[in-house]
Amino acid sequence: MGLASADLLVGHIMNEQALPLPETDDEDELMLAPTMEPAAPSKSRLGLLKRLADVVCLPGSRVNAFERAMTADLLVEVLREAATDERARVARRLANVNEIPSGILRLLLRDHIEVARPLLEISAGVGDADLIDCARHATTEHRRLIAMRRGVTDTVCDVLASFGEAPVIEMLLRNDLAKLSHSAVEAIVAATRESPHYIPMLLRRTELRPSHAYVLFWWADADARLTILQRFAVSREILQDAVSDLFATAAAEGWQDPVSRKALQFIERRQRNRAAIAKSPFASLEAAIAATEGGFKREVAEEISYLSGVKPMTGAKIFTDPGGEPIAILCKATGLPKAAVRTLWRSMRRPETDASGAVSPTLERVLMVFDMVAVDRAQTVLRYWNWALSSALTPALLRAIREGQEEPVDDYSTPQRAAMLVLSRDLAR
Fold first, then answer.
1. Which segments of 81-165 does DSSP mark as H helices, in order?
2. To 10 degrees, what angle do helices 102-109 and 113-122 make?
3. How far apart (Å, rounded) are the C-alpha atoms in residues 44 and 48?
4. Which SS3 state, helix, strand or coil, does residue 145 take?
């Protein structure tokens, strides 16, 4: 199409009675389709819509970029006053085009779902910027259709997950070709606290990392906890081999660097705290466990935590967990026998048998976890809990948790964000 043909198009449109644009200072509002349907359109308008759409759909060999842009501008003006079925017809026509002018695309993507659907479902000409704009300014159904698209990028997933809408999150989790970003996974992990039905779908995602799974563990059900322990309770053998010579270096420096000290404490093989044993009123961790048989007191629980190499806050989370699996992890990580699990269970007045006299299903599951997890892997889980739930809790973080502060979450590290998720309710009580 040459410039002469384009001039004919301009003249044809200018001869039509122009309709005034709505009076508004908001450019975004002008992009939205009218809410009231116009009177029956003339044959010339219907023909004009079709011809303009045909020109926009021409290949690059037939129309240059400036001609396409001019035609698109004219089409946008006509579409503003078109009926819904007319706009839907144009959208279906453009859905098969790889290069759709941005003005038309933004108008149609923000339109009623019956207009936007073909573009959201099948169009390859819709880029990330267009999808993000649609997600931010359209409806839940628009966002759900975006979540269904093949190869949804991490940037788009970020925006979709930020709305916290169940149909959208479920579709993202079911879409194996969607790429969830780290922050999107964090948002979904937080959402699982109120929507536990997300958990099985989330556990199947390859983007889920141990930092997410160890947080998710605290409010997951028994089956999900078992999956987390089987998949994410990893060995630290490679790390131990990689930094084995650094322990002597850090000791020679008096463990003065707090960052390296925490990291090396996470990696080292020894779980029990020798310094705590020297200060404890109990001769050993076993003796502290035995002392609980007279009743599970707070002071004894704190000593067990110190002797086990974890902070009292971590110990409190473990001992008050209703499922009981963390008790098995604590005992296995510290080299205690299975009998220690039963001792702690009994001291906390938890049922050991059911009505028939058989072992309580809950206790049986906890004992199974003890048998299933290797010592080194149990230490990984325990140390991550301690790292996330205690050492990351700075005064600023505690204040953020209590105040429900969400805005500066990116300022916190991974363990700090984990602590915010896990402890937000506990600290609010």
1. 84-94, 102-109, 113-122, 128-137, 140-148, 154-162
2. 120
3. 6
4. helix
Q: Which two tokens stand for residue 153?
A: 């990028």
Burial class (CB in 10 A: 0-12, 13-18, 19+), 241: exposed
How far is Cα 211 from Cα 100, in angstroms, rounded to an integer?
41
359: β partners? 353
- Cα separation, 346 vs 249, in Å, equals 44
What pLDDT is recorded for position 393?
45
Percent of the chain's residues with pLDDT above 90: 41
For residues 10 and 320, give the distance between their C-alpha atoms in angstroms, rounded to a whole number. Answer: 75
pLDDT band, residue 15 (cuts 50/70/90): very low
Polymer length in residues for the chain: 429
End-to-end CA distance of the chain: 71
Query: What residues contact 85, with CB distance under 8 A and at least 6 apart?
Result: none
Reduced to 3 states (helix: H, G, I; strand: E, B; else coil), residue 405 is coil
d(CA 85, CA 198): 37
Nearest CA to 267 among 228, 241, 236, 290? 236
In tens, the pLDDT along 64-81 reads 778 878 888 888 888 888
Q: How far apart are alpha carbons 99 and 125 in whole angstroms?
A: 5
pTM, full prediction: 0.73
Residues 6 or more apart in contact with residue 406 via CB below 8 angstroms: none
Half-sphere exposure of 408 (CA within 13 A, CB side): 10
Work out the burial of residue 403: count CB atoms within 10 Å of its CB; fewer than 13 is exposed, 13-18 middle, 19 or more buried: exposed
Q: Kindly report, residue by residue over 149-207, the tens digit of the pLDDT.
A: 999 999 999 999 999 999 999 999 999 999 999 889 988 988 888 899 999 999 999 99
Degrees (nearest 5) of the Cα angle 342, 422, 262? 85
Distance from C-alpha of 208 to C-alpha of 203, rounded to nearest angstrom: 7
Contact 270, 383 (CB under 8 A): no
Q: What mean pLDDT comes out for the span 99-128?
A: 91
Q: What is the DSSP letter of 353?
A: B
The whole-angstrom separation of Cα 360 and Cα 168 is: 39
